[in-house]
Amino acid sequence: MTCLFSIAIAQHKETIWIGGDNGAISFNGDSAISFFRTENSKFSRTSASICDQEGSLLFYSNGFNVFNRNFALMENGDSLSIGEYIEFNYGLMPTPDGAVIVPMPGDSNRYYLFYMDLNWIFTQLGYFLFPTHLFYSVIDLSLDGGNGAIVDGLKDISILNDTLTQAGMQVIRHGNGRDWWLVCHEYGNNNYYKFLIDDLGIHGPDSQLAGIRYWLVNAGVSSSMRFNSGGDLFIHQSRDSNIVELHDFDRCTGLFSNYRTFKVNDPWVPLRGVSVSPQGTYLYISSNYTEILQFNLDAIDIYQSRTVVGLDDGILNPFPAKYFLHRLGPGWKNLYLQL
Predict the structure, then answer these.
(1) For the domain 16-338, what is the CATH code?
(2) What is the per-residue pLDDT across 31-41, written as a single tens digit (0 to 9) for each?
(3) Which of 98, 279, 324, 336 is the most buried if burial means most Cβ atoms within 10 Å?
């Protein structure tokens, strides 16, 4: 297998973010402009969108419905399988990174949409909602006059049947610059599931045991996962164990190695979100909704590099600004929060 070590991610693929009630953000250079969508769908944590090379919107999803470039329900894009969570009738999914879009290698018109469901699982603390399936649907943008549609017979295809954490999924380019890796985490242990996506289809899951156990509250929405922009570093923050786990990642073999951790706070303070700087030097953690912490990953003692770079100002109007989930903007530049 040839491995060229090339990220080759188009800079405009993520220039429009969808979220909230009828909200969206459009990025242009270093500026971000909010605008209202024309449909009435709602988004809560689960949000996947993709644009073309020029930054024009192609389609997006809240993990329950798929919408086309015209902010209208995509043909065959209604009612994705979300399990028992459908009883709440919210019309969305609430799992961070619970849906991701992957261009299909070898076919410029087709895309995979991966997503999870939520079902009631009995745990030591009682019944809680956790994902129990990983699905995909195939979107073909040549259908419906170029607006795209989910292909008949290629909707709600299950590729994994197991209880997973609510950390969602992460995807990164393969080292050959063409294929993709998808990573998620099993509930109740330290097992990562990994899929290889190439022009022959979806392969896996393969399993690798690495790091600590994720279960109960620590398997919830605040134990975020992230790759750095180069794809050679994988981060998993532990909400309750108060540590950040670091793994080197081989984009050719898909293997984790060189496991290490560092603590975030001295006392028990819940963590909420994680992002990595463009150069991979700095890690940003949101702590207890009120702070954004910066850590230097190149420091000998990473904890001692801890710096507060964001602090809640206490202003409640028009709404309280809770520092929760976040990620870097397009081009790996600015940090944006999901409030």
Answers:
(1) 2.130.10
(2) 778 888 888 89
(3) 98
